[in-house]
Amino acid sequence: MGTPPLSLILTRPTRANQRFADQLPGALRDRVRIILSPLIEIVPVEAALTIAPEDAVIFTSANAVRFAPRGAGRRAFCVGAATTEAARSAGWQATFSGQTADALVASLGSELPTSPLWHLAGRYTRGQVAERLSAQGLSVQRRTVYDQALLSLTAEARACLAGSDPVIVAVFSPRTAMGFARDCPVTAHPSVAALSVAVAEPLAHLPLKALEIAEEPTAEAMVRCLEKLVARVSLG
């Protein structure tokens, strides 16, 4: 069997990109040529942290868990199942607090924990979690534990986008979307699968052939989103 004419460009950081590629169903993988082109590099940032045993943390991404101290049984409030599981594996007493930052803010605003909270996150975040919780009277400090450095499209991805065959691009964060919008060849008309409406926003000015937004911000929903988009693009 020859190479499928439909290409799928994955843009997550290297480790997450490969992990997502590995979980794609075989039937989907058979219909596309997968191109790994990370548009974000996760870089640790030195942060002065003194988290007391009675303090709790907020994790809005699994990347933050990687660069945070070990949990040692302390509480963690997490966005997303993957982040919650990563926190538990790192020794935190982790609570799933919703799929989005808005859900977490609503949950903690209802629970009103009395312990000091630390939002450990990337340099670029959305949702103003610490600010919104502080406005509700909670004690929250935000600390940057990693940076999200923008990368350029690989030569293979750029050539694919400049060609005549159909291309689908999977985009998982607003910052990644900004990088793609910057690098996408002006003659390209890709189809895009976006993790959320917020992720799709930076792509509004691009001449997209099609746009599909995941039903919820999870890897499983993105797989379903890609399955729909592959079927849609394949029909022309």
From TrEMBL:
CDD domains: HemD. Residues 33-223 form the Tetrapyrrole biosynthesis uroporphyrinogen III synthase domain. It comes from the Bacteria. This is Uroporphyrinogen-III synthase.
